[in-house]
Design a protein that fits this description.
With 242 residues, the chain is of the alpha/beta class. Helices cover 31% and strands 22% of the residues. It contains 6 helices and 6 strands, in the order αααααβαβββββ. The protein has helices spanning 3-21, 35-58, 61-68, 86-93, 102-107, 134-143; strands at residues 130-131, 154-162, 168-174, 183-191, 202-215, 222-233. It has a 5-stranded mixed β-barrel with strand order 2-3-4-6-5. Helix 1 (3-21) packs parallel to helix 4. The protein is elongated, with a radius of gyration of 25 Å. The two termini are 42 Å apart. This is Repeat protein (TIGR03943 family). Keywords: Membrane, Transmembrane, Transmembrane helix. The chain crosses the membrane at residues 33-55, 81-105. InterPro entries: DUF1980 (IPR015402), DUF1980_C (IPR048447), UPF0703_membrane_permease (IPR052955).
Length: 242
């Protein structure tokens, strides 16, 4: 791999990151707040590629020959393994994987296992039903024993995943930084449980707090339940992670 090939790969890699960052594709891999950093890194890669090409094309051929000659009349080339850098470029441009979903949730234990108990959650905002995140509901249900959830109709959004007993559960992935550290928040469903709904289907659920809980078989974390009143299938949201 010569210097020009390296520059072209930097241009492709930077362009692929920029393309993902200015749309919604990047949200499958990182949190929304990281978009400016992705754009900045993409622009730096593109600038580095352009400058490398410019320098290499304007340099006299004799200078290239001197740089590539090993002193014994043999030309020196960079390791061919560098071409493997084009694989993530093709992955971003051609076969971008989906966001983490039901399979990842089933293989990982609930993120509540690492949380510390709280006892003074603030009151929920006004609204009927009041929209709460999966993490907020699960935390209040487990660590506050549902004190701030009672007598309220709640609206949760997540995707369907199969529980250990084969019954559907509601789940959503949370990220600290990127998809590599994604962990699921799982909520069991009782009452008007969605029937025959495929895994990874996004649904919006209206219901109420119930004291029912279960243990996540992956890491023995407590999984709270929601008593479902109504539910409806919805398109996958733009921001699929919490």
């Amino acid at each position: 791999m010569n210097r020009q090939a390296q520059a072209v790969i930097m241009l492709l890699f930077g362009g692929a990151i920029l393309k993902a960052s200015i749309g919604d594709l990047y949200l499958r891999y990182v949190k929304e707040m990281l978009q400016p950093f992705l754009i900045a890194s993409a622009l730096l890669l593109i600038a580095a590629g352009v400058m490398t090409l410019w320098y290499d094309l304007r340099a006299p051929q004799t200078e290239h020959d001197h740089e590539e000659d090993d002193g014994h009349g043999h030309k020196h080339h960079e390791p061919r393994v560098g071409w493997l850098l084009i694989l993530p470029v093709l992955g971003l441009l051609l076969v971008a994987p989906p966001a983490l979903g039901a399979y990842a949730a089933g293989q990982s234990g609930s993120a509540l296992a690492g949380q510390q108990a709280e006892s003074d959650y603030p009151a929920l905002p006004e609204g009927d039903p009041v929209k709460v995140t999966m993490l907020d509901y699960a935390s209040r249900a487990v660590f506050d024993e549902g004190k701030s959830l009672t007598d309220r109709r709640l609206l949760l959004t997540g995707f369907v995943t199969q529980g250990p007993d084969g019954q559907p559960m509601l789940a959503r992935m949370i990220l600290s930084c990127c998809a590599a550290d994604g962990r699921p928040i799982k909520v069991g469903l009782s009452g008007n449980v969605p029937a025959a709904v495929p895994s990874d289907t996004w649904i919006e659920v209206t219901g109420a707090y119930t004291a029912q809980t279960a243990k996540d078989p992956v890491n023995e974390a407590t999984v709270p339940y929601l008593e479902v009143e109504t539910w409806q299938e919805i398109p996958a949201p733009k921001q699929q992670y919490e």
